[in-house]
TrEMBL record:
CDD domains: AAT_like (cd00609)
HAMAP family: HisC_aminotrans_2
Top-level taxon: Bacteria
Matches recorded under Pfam families: Aminotran_1_2
Record keywords, A-Z: Amino-acid biosynthesis, Aminotransferase, Histidine biosynthesis, Pyridoxal phosphate, Transferase
Coiled coil: none
Entry similarity comment: Belongs to the class-II pyridoxal-phosphate-dependent aminotransferase family. Histidinol-phosphate aminotransferase subfamily.
Residues recorded with modification N6-(pyridoxal phosphate)lysine: K206
Keyword Transferase: yes
Enzyme class: transferase
Organism: Streptococcus gallinaceus
Molecular function as annotated in GO: histidinol-phosphate transaminase activity
Listed cofactors: pyridoxal 5'-phosphate
The name this protein goes by in its record: Histidinol-phosphate aminotransferase
Length: 349
């Protein structure tokens, strides 16, 4: 018997199956490859520089982001995926006796971090039509985190409604997780000048086809950035590796390419959603690279199983009561989604 070991309810990430034929639509990865300039920079990367530690302040990458976002570089912190940034943000900003608020249906990691760091929290139920009701967030709290557009619903909450939540809670930090913002939502970046309690996080995993490289960032008032930097320097000062910094910088400089692939994904998403609706499925309105849908004629678990037999992997949440009749399907290429659609028709027909 070893004393002192901790018991943890860990986050359960989407599976990473492998196979040549498979269509992988279970973790919202990007359907298209990184930009040609990124692939070229990767091929010519000077491996000898890996001998040294990576940059401490990641100034080159932050400068590129600063230009792209039109935000001063001292308001940006970068990290090893946005999970890295979010986990540090929980430690940096949520240190009150009152509970941190987030929706009952949202990114599953929030609850895990709150538990892990002993942060009191309260899950606010989404409305019957899976929306965030801003009025629910006008109560005493120790901070707020909202994903916009939300996952796994895909629903975007308009910016003026987000602003009301930030405005009503200016004595705590409000984090807006914009993991899917480039698939049709409207960013809250413009609110940064008005509110110093706003912290926005972004990831390169979904829109920039970098899930395997691990790049994310946060944007906020320099006072917030200073606290989160202190956390970074207390856990993992070189949190972004040299290869990731180089390739992510090239990606930002070639962002036009990603606007093109995001546009293709949105077009395919809207086509796919309409096909499902035509089959009688319920489909939540999505501004992301996935759809949440309730199948007709067969159960979600049956469809999940049958698709998996054809090596089509989607996400099913059997343990979440409100989602047990739904599947979350990431949007692949148009060709992939046409194949998925004919398979769904075969199973449900
Ligand atoms: C994917 C995702 C993340 C994590 O992104 P990484 O950069 O891959 O760590 C964070 N928040 C939400 C809502 C996500 O969907």
């Amino acid at each position: 018997m070893i004393r002192g070991l901790r018991q943890i309810d860990a986050y359960v990430a989407g599976a990473q199956p492998s196979g040549d034929k498979m269509i992988k639509l279970n973790t919202n990865e990007n359907a298209y490859e990184p930009s040609p300039k990124v692939l070229e920079a990767f091929a010519h990367f000077d491996g000898n520089c890996l001998r040294k530690y990576s940059s401490l302040d990641q100034a080159v990458f932050r400068e590129a982001l600063s230009k792209q976002l039109q935000v001063p570089a001292d308001q940006i912190i970068v990290g090893n995926g946005s999970d890295d940034i979010l986990s540090m943000a929980f430690l940096a900003f949520f240190n009150d006796d009152l509970p941190v608020l987030f929706p009952d249906l949202t990114y599953g990691f929030y609850k895990v971090w709150a538990d892990l760091y002993h942060i009191p929290f309260k899950e606010i139920p989404l409305t019957a039509d899976f929306k965030i009701d801003g009025a629910d967030y006008h109560v005493p709290n120790g901070g707020i985190i909202i994903t916009d557009p939300n996952a796994p619903t895909g629903i975007f909450k308009p910016l003026d409604e987000i602003e009301k939540i930030i405005q009503a809670n200016q004595d705590v930090v409000v984090i807006v997780d914009e993991a899917y913002i480039n698939f049709g939502g409207q960013t809250a970046l413009s609110l940064l000048e008005k509110y110093d309690n706003l912290f926005i996080t972004r990831t390169f995993s979904k829109d920039a086809a970098f899930a395997g490289l691990r790049v994310g960032y946060g944007v906020g008032n320099p006072r917030l950035i200073a606290v989160i930097n202190a956390i970074k320097n207390s856990v993992n000062p070189y949190n972004l590796d040299a290869l990731a910094e180089k390739l992510a910088t090239v990606a930002v400089e070639d962002w036009l390419y990603y606007e093109g692939t995001c546009q293709k994904i949105m077009t395919t998403r809207d086509w796919f959603a309409q096909e499902l609706v035509d089959l009688g499925f319920e489909v939540l309105p999505s501004q992301t690279n996935f759809v949440l849908t309730r199948p007709q004629t067969v159960s979600a678990s049956h469809l999940f199983q049958k698709l998996q037999e054809k090596e089509i992997y989607v996400r099913y949440f059997p343990k979440v009561a409100r989602l047990k009749d739904y599947l979350r399907i990431s949007i692949g290429t148009q060709a992939e989604m046409e194949e998925v659609m004919s398979e769904i028709r075969r199973i449900c027909g």
